[in-house]
Amino acid sequence: MGFPGKEMPKAQEFVGAWPGQERDSLLLLGNVDHDTFLTLLTRSTIFWRTPTCDGVSASVLESLTLGVPVVASDNGRRPPGVVTYRETDAADMCGKLAGVIANLNTVKASLKQTESEDKVGEKVDWLVGISRPQTGPGSRRGSPLSPIERKG
Question: Alpha helix (H) ranges present in 33-73?
Fold first, then answer.
């Protein structure tokens, strides 16, 4: 789990009271760079997102894209594929974490069936003039001329 530096002592104190096996199975980190985060994420069984104030955080989307199941507090704005728990209900949170672990292969398979749209990729392709098939209702195939092509 990653924490901003100022929150690390509180997290260490909290985890210090856990039984040995549970404590040993958790890695507490401070802030890490994005490449390190993604590397750790690809090696994770679950991404556990506890804040309730965010909607669709980049880390949640990255986890789903990498096929790592996400268990997160329910804030009414989580994307499809996220397993949510009631934010103030520790039993619900533990039950959801245990349920995902017990059904890990099924949960991962359901993530592969969730197709995400790469709108950022489409815009980058458009800017550099690469035609990409578009999907969805009312969409056109290909992309308009890039700004570079229009000048010529």
Answer: 34-42, 58-65
Query: For the chain, what is the mean pLDDT?
Result: 75
Q: Where does the chain hold its CATH 3.40.50.2000 domain(s)?
A: 32-113
- Identify the residue with better confidence: 134 or 113: 113
List Cβ neighbours of 105 (8 Å cut-off, separation of 6 or more): none
Whole-number Cα distances in Å, 57 to 39, 66, 79, 120: 18, 15, 10, 15
Q: Which residue has the higher pLDDT, 11 or 104?
A: 104
* Nearest residue to 72 via CA among 91, 111, 46: 46
The CATH code belonging to domain 32-113 is 3.40.50.2000
User: Can you tell me the distance from the alpha carbon of 40 to that of 36, in angstroms, rounded to the nearest whole number?
Assistant: 6
